[in-house]
Write a structure and sequence with these properties.
- This protein is α+β, with helices and mostly antiparallel strands and 418 residues long.
- The chain has three domains: 3-216, C8orf32 fold (Roll), CATH 3.10.620.30; 229-318, Sandwich (Immunoglobulin-like); 330-417, Sandwich (Immunoglobulin-like).
- The strands form seven sheets. Strands 10, 12, 14, 15, 18 and 19 form a six-stranded mixed beta sheet that branches. Strands 20, 22, 24, 25, 28 and 29 form a six-stranded mixed beta sheet that branches. Strands 8-5-4-3-9 form a five-stranded antiparallel beta sheet.
- Helix 4 (60-74) packs antiparallel against helix 7 (103-116).
- It is elongated and about 80 Å long.
């Protein structure tokens, strides 16, 4: 018996012995578990590996998934080649042997394994907004990335095995972290980061130009994972005098935070303010002086632990010096938890000795007050609105509310009188 067939029968026996463990509980759990538990014996050649990976697959999509998941776990991005520009040979046999590759090796191995598995796959080359991308960059010269298209049930779908395997951190080190977003990514999402040299592989109608691609907002996988949609600003470039309000459609379960960045400096957090209105979140940003800034948005699921994830960048060009100190009031946790909405004043720094008009929507609150020093000023209730005019003084100025069942007032917002 030829050695290749002998090896295959051995791994087939191993796979069959594992079958009772592969109870399916969600879309890809069974095929993922199979791919992640591939024995070394099945990894001796592209042909044997492909046959093993697709053993439990019921259709071409599961075949593609098994190959994608195995590559994501087992192939490491070749950072030395990437940073030196000295790219080693990227043939599938070499990549399988050495377990390292740049993007061309990832996409080439995926195509070779897929061909052995009997599915139709194409390699795609083009521009991608990867490790060294900063919003506003223009793409010149040869293509800088490679990914794949796979034909499933007669329809071409997109995937990126390199980015599915992980990413480079700020120090340029490869971090293996499986990213579901890059398996069968919808074309209307993929186009925010990937532009093929051959426009037909956009899989879009109408297709976009390179100029339009460069102008798009920089959307990261977390933007789509958290169910966000752009509403007010589709392009990634915003020109304003000294402030802007961006609106995104957002599920109730998603919470956001934002930063203003210029060069290597992250500016004071009071330069941004976020509040929800129905199915949208409004992101306010103000800028301390004329110049170019990055407005960066982070997102996470409200009730899940963990850090906020980078979701979006805009490049904002501020053209005028603000007439008043920039920034917004400091928001306390209760403000967002109670679904409050600030109408006025939006300025976080208030001139002392002047009357300022306050209006805040505070659902379910019994009372709301404005605390200036030791002075508590009752705000008038009109349904969910609480409003009134108060003369401010130097120091902290706080908006607080009392809710049914609570014995104390919750602080919602803090201004600074100057």
């Amino acid at each position: 018996m030829p050695r290749l067939k002998f090896i295959f029968f051995i791994i087939l026996a191993i796979a069959c012995s594992q079958a009772p463990l592969l109870a399916r509980t969600n879309r890809y759990e069974t095929i993922d578990r199979h791919a992640l538990s591939t024995p070394r014996l099945a990894e001796q050649s592209v042909q044997v590996l492909a046959r093993y990976l697709v053993l439990p697959a019921r259709n071409d999509e599961e075949k593609a998934r098994a190959i994608f998941r195995w590559i994501a776990k087992n192939i490491t991005y070749d950072t030395r080649s990437y940073f030196t520009g000295s790219i080693r040979e990227t043939g599938p046999d070499r990549v399988l042997r050495d377990r390292t590759a740049v993007c061309g090796g990832f996409s080439g191995l995926f195509k070779s394994l897929g061909r052995e598995a009997g599915i139709e796959i194409e390699n795609i080359s083009g521009y991608a907004k990867g490790f060294d991308y900063r919003i506003g960059k223009h793409f010149r010269g040869p293509a800088n990335h490679a990914w794949n298209a796979v034909k499933l049930d007669g329809v071409w779908r997109l995937l990126d095995a390199t980015w599915g395997a992980g990413h480079l951190d700020e120090a340029g080190r490869f971090v293996r972290e499986f990213d579901e977003h890059f398996f069968l990514t919808p074309p209307e999402q993929m186009v925010y980061t990937h532009l093929p040299e051959d426009p037909r592989w956009q899989l879009l109608d109408p297709q976009i130009t390179q100029e339009a691609f460069e102008k798009l907002a920089y959307l990261k996988p977390a933007f789509f994972r958290c169910g966000l949609e752009l509403e007010s600003h589709q392009d990634g470039f915003i020109e304003t005098e000294n402030s802007v309000t961006v609106t995104v459609v957002s599920p109730e379960a998603t919470v956001l935070s934002a930063q203003i960045i210029r060069g290597n400096r992250i500016w004071d957090e009071t330069l941004t303010f976020i509040q929800r209105e129905s199915d949208k979140q409004l992101i306010y940003a103000s800028f301390p002086s004329p110049g170019s800034y990055v407005l960066r948005l982070f997102a996470k699921a409200k009730n899940e632990p963990g850090m906020y994830e980078w979701a979006l960048d805009y490049l904002v060009h501020s053209t005028a010096q603000p007439a008043h100190p920039p920034g917004y009031p400091e928001m306390y946790q209760a403000f967002s938890e109670k679904d409050c909405f600030l109408i006025r004043p939006m300025e976080g720094r208030l001139k002392a000795g002047r009357l300022h008009s306050f209006c805040v929507r505070i659902p379910d609150a019994e009372h709301a007050v404005l605390i200036v020093g030791n002075q508590w000023n009752e705000l008038q209730k009109d349904g969910e609105l609480f409003q009134g005019e108060v003369e401010t003084a130097k120091g902290n100025v706080q908006v607080a509310a009392k809710f049914p069942g609570d014995s104390k007032y919750d602080v919602l917002l803090k201004y600074v009188g100057y």
